[in-house]
Design goal:
Elements: H1 5-8, E1 11-19, H2 22-32, E2 36-41, E3 44-49, E4 52-58, E5 63-70, H3 74-86, E6 92-93, E7 104-107, E8 113-117, E9 134-141, H4 144-154, E10 158-164, E11 170-176, E12 184-188, E13 193-200, H5 204-216, E14 223-227, E15 234-239, E16 245-250, E17 261-264, H6 267-270
Bound molecules: fe (ii) ion (FE2).
Length: 280
């Protein structure tokens, strides 16, 4: 059996960030994003909450070390692997500590390491915390067209929405590997890296709860509340001490049974309610 990314139902399981001050960054996520802090070694921290996991490693600020996408089971993982091999993408050994022996890694055209696997531990995090599973990752890239060729053309992510410049070139592309509007997206930028990652609370009242929690930690919103056009989700953004953008989202569009929609690169596309942060 061979399955594309969308057929495999892959979902974002964890992100590994590099940081010049990993202990500070890990402490921030534990406090502000309501997670348990685990010091694994002098050079590895993990932050874990219900359905949200981060790895923090020494390195450069605002750099992703790797990302982990989980398949639903061993069969879909093996079937996705077959699809990836048939599309002539080189497969490397898995580098994620969260995934089991069948996991593997690939490199995308911007040199991001993507790990596909099944979480090793079946033990669920028991922390009583505000709901907010880690849900999507958004890249910044010099070349969004190349992102689409790889993620849609080769891995088989489904394109849900595109945001176009006046000349027809891509400002943003939203792609998904399951029933959610996007699991991986990409913004045109003046550099290659990460634009933001997001936690999906599901409900507007939980955005209130998160914002009240941020207030107790003296963390101010940097953007929002607002509603995105593509995905139709409610959002707020905060910024971690390294400058990574964090989104807390609700009402993200799901169960897509429609054609790809094109949007103009305009303030209203990024925020139906108010000010936008236009990346390019
Ligand atoms: Fe987002």
């Amino acid at each position: 059996m061979e399955l594309t990314a969308i057929q495999s139902g892959a979902y974002l399981h964890h992100i590994a960030f590099e940081s010049a001050n990993p202990e500070r960054l890990a402490s921030y996520y534990a406090e502000v994003m309501d997670m348990d802090l685990l010091k694994i070694s002098d050079s590895e921290w993990r932050c874990e909450g219900p359905s949200r996991q981060l790895i923090i490693l020494p390195g450069a600020n605002k750099k992703m070390a790797f990302v982990g996408l989980s398949c639903r089971n061993e069969e879909t993982l093996a079937a996705l692997r077959k699809h990836i091999i048939r599309n002539n993408i080189e497969i490397f050994e898995n580098i994620s500590p969260y995934f089991n022996i069948d996991a593997f890694s690939i490199r995308d055209p911007d040199d991001h390491i993507i790990c596909f696997g099944i979480p090793d531990s079946i033990e669920k995090n028991q922390r009583k915390a505000i709901k907010g599973p880690i849900q999507h990752l958004t890249f910044a890239s010099l070349d969004v067209e190349r992102f689409v060729d790889f993620y849609h053309g080769k891995l088989g992510f489904q394109i849900t929405d595109r945001v176009l410049h006046k000349d027809g070139s891509l400002a943003t592309c939203f792609t998904t590997s399951n029933h959610e509007h996007h699991t991986i997206a990409c913004f045109k930028s003046d550099h290659n890296g990460i634009d933001h990652h997001s936690y999906e609370t599901g409900d507007w009242n939980r955005i209130r709860d998160w914002c009240d929690h941020f207030a107790t930690k003296n963390v101010q919103l940097m953007w929002g509340p607002g509603r995105h056009g593509p995905g139709n989700n409610l959002f707020v953004f905060i910024e971690d001490p390294d400058g990574n953008w964090i989104e807390v989202s609700a009402e993200l569009e799901v169960n897509l049974n429609r054609k790809t929609k094109d949007w103009p690169q305009a303030e209203r596309t990024l925020n139906l309610w108010g000010d936008a942060i236009l990346r390019s």
